[in-house]
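Class, carefully examine what follows:
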Amino acid sequence: MSHSPSDQPSRAPADDAALSGLLAFLRSAEALKVQHRSGRTSDGAPESVAAHSWRLALAAIVLGDALGDHDRLRLLELCIVHDLGEALSGDTPATDQRPDDGRAARERADLVTLCAPLAEPVRARLLSAYDEYEAGATREAVLAKALDKIETILQHLQGANGPDFDHAFNLGYARARTDAHPVTARLRALVDAETRALAQVPSPRPRAP
């Protein structure tokens, strides 16, 4: 059994001050609905960060037992929280990301600001989820990172993107993440096949025995 901080759930705030802080946090988090990613939805509208996080969480739910032994609640928490700091800082497209661009530190600092109105146990839980996702060491973080990449590629396949959209970029995107679990590796193979067809990139030849 995979153990995580979700084995010790935080208590919900009960007094009016704590509930007011929760409402203030939720009002601020609404900004994630209007922060856009680089891709488009199937009707051509810009995809929001919140929409990406929602379908990532949905993928974690529907895959369920197929992912093997894991803490389902914690996986959902990681999926929902992983981009929450982008409510303030916005999204950086994968094509523009660099290892030393300070993006993770900036997003965490923004998440700290966003969580400031919350009661300490709730605030600590959200920050713990972000840190766990970024470290990528737990079973749930490995799964969340893999599904995050697959959801991104799937949206690029479905979206009504412009003619200059670089679908071929996705064929090499974050492969180590998606190959970290056998089920996500198989999902990646399926979306890669669609990407090759869309980008008109030939399938790789099988290796000689």
Remarks:
- The mean pLDDT is 91.
- The two ends are 38 Å apart (CA to CA).
- Strands lie at 36-40, 46-48.
